[in-house]
Specification:
Elements lengths: L2 E10 L4 E2 L6 E2 L4 E9 L2 E7 L1 H10 L8 H7 L5 H28 L1
Antiparallel strand pairs: 1-4, 2-3, 4-5
Helix pairs in contact: 1-3
């Protein structure tokens, strides 16, 4: 079982880091999310890029372990930004359909 030790915070990196979710490398001086967690193998830290952090916060708030790079590959997308745009459009479409359904129910 994985347990978060430190609350998530945004840091400015002092050296290059890879995003733990999309596996892209970000140069020194990038703003990235910092997570420290413990599992059966010990204490670890992971950095997340802004796009992956937004995807996680919006669409995986329960802390599900995901691989954004695998989701992108399965969907034929090249970047996490494309994935975020796809998720946002799908979510907006569902919200519009739900709003229309609720309005219809109110008039019946």
């Amino acid at each position: 079982m994985t347990e978060l030790l430190k609350k998530f915070k945004v840091v400015t990196t002092r050296k290059p880091h890879f995003c733990g979710f999309c596996e892209r490398e970000f140069p020194k001086g990038s703003d990235m999310g910092s997570h420290v967690y413990v599992d059966s193998d010990g204490i670890h830290s992971i950095y997340t890029c802004e796009t992956c952090q937004e995807i996680i916060e919006k669409y995986y708030p329960d802390g599900d372990e995901i691989s954004i790079i695998k989701i992108c590959e399965q969907d034929g997308l090249k970047t996490p930004e494309e994935l975020l745009e796809k998720f946002d459009k799908a979510f907006e479409s569902e919200r519009i359909l739900l709003d229309e359904f609720q309005k219809k129910q109110e008039h019946e």
